[in-house]
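Dissemination and training. As part of the outreach component of the grant, students in the summer workshop were shown how a complex can be specified as a set of sequence lines and then modelled as a single object. The example used during the hands-on session is reproduced here so that future cohorts can follow it. Participants entered these lines:
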Amino acid sequence: MSKNNEYPDKRQQFMELYEPVHERFVRFCKAHAYGNYGADDLVNETVLSAFENFEKLRSPKAFLHFLFGIATNILRNNYRRKKFRGEYVEEYAENMISTAPEGEEHTELGILYKALAQLPDKQQEALILFEISGFSIKEIMEIQKSGESAVKARLVRGRKRLAELLQEPVAISA
Amino acid sequence: MDHLFQAAREEPVGTSIGDVNQMLDNAAAGSGVSAGTGSTAWLGKGAIIKGGLFVGALAIGVVAFFMLSNDTQVEPVRVADITPIQAATADITDDQIIFPEQQVFIPQIEEQVVEEEEEATEELTEIATTQSTAPHVDQPILVNNANDDVPVQTTPNYHPEKKQKEANLNTVFVSGEMPEDPYGLLTQDDNANEDGEPVAAQPKRRIEQQFYLEYVDNDAELNKLQSDLDAVGMKIDVADLQRKWRKLRYIDLKFDWESVNTAEKTDCSLKASNFKFIQLVVEHDGEGKVSDFKIFVQGRQEYDVTTCGCQMNHR
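and obtained this result:
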């Protein structure tokens, strides 16, 4: 089979796996990248990278871990690069153009995303996947390559910490 | 908190699945590369970003290279320009050869050295099989030590730290360090003091004495070498050596003096800058006096030096 003919098959296979999770994936990117990276950019980068490396995916069952892992790595690498860019200067920071969606910084969602960003990575990721993207515990276990108890613990601890950050009474329902 | 999550779940997503399809179409068209080719396919925006990163990394590498070159103040030279003498005097590390004013990445030179050493070793193996007095030089030389059950082991050896010094070669041999009668061979019995009275036996030291012959245009140093050799009972006409071995710009003599003192026969290794193996074979009477001293170069006996006043002969 020529490469040109191979491409539609690959595209079709990729989209068959990607399309069902698209909306949840975009929500994940939006919440996870808030303030650090453009959500649309993260979606585009991740999809392009996932498609480019699609041959490396050995099993369709691993697609969620594959896709979300790429997004997480892109964010992590971006964060690492930012650490080397200079010292924090408050006056300068206040004048920076925010990467958050326009008008959203002081909305309730903006507050939520900021609070989520203060959680440990795995907790933040688990909470976003569960509460915002709507994945099941089982799917999160697959994405995070973790056991059920670990995922539930992250959700419980994450909610507890988030409530403290939002100064709300703790309501645990994982 | 739950109402916040609820709001986040209900918020419209900005990027539709149609947008994703369009992005993949654009990327495939923009790259000009079949996306089915795998990891080498660069797509659209991703290609621009990766290309930028690549160019950036390349630029950093080039700048770092020049900065490093300036820091070390060395001038890279081609491997083909390195002469054997330069290689011999260089400090050879894992990945480069360094000599006073130049730096070369060295894998080829290292291979050359190894090959030439192997050649010379093979030749010396032939000597060892034909000359009863010549030990096998590619193996450690085991010599019986009178005061120790453990054999003394010597091995032929380069001395790169010394060879570093002779980057600027001229025309006359000169000696390196040679302490005066360092092992008491000429002045004192091991078991007697200066007056000949018995004393407790001193533990024998393992002694390796080395001296280095280098070209310099300094008569005083030439004379010092000559006197050093005379002082230990070996008369070598260094001026004659210089005439006969003009091509040898550097030689390194290594003697295990203790073995000389305790064994009837031993040998000393000597290497020259052109990688020829030179072997010295010393015979003595077991009391510290050398009775025969031969020098072999590339399998030929070049010198038969009989010490204690005897003449040195060339063949």
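The longest helix of chain B spans residues 44-72. Students were then asked to discuss how this feature might be tested experimentally.
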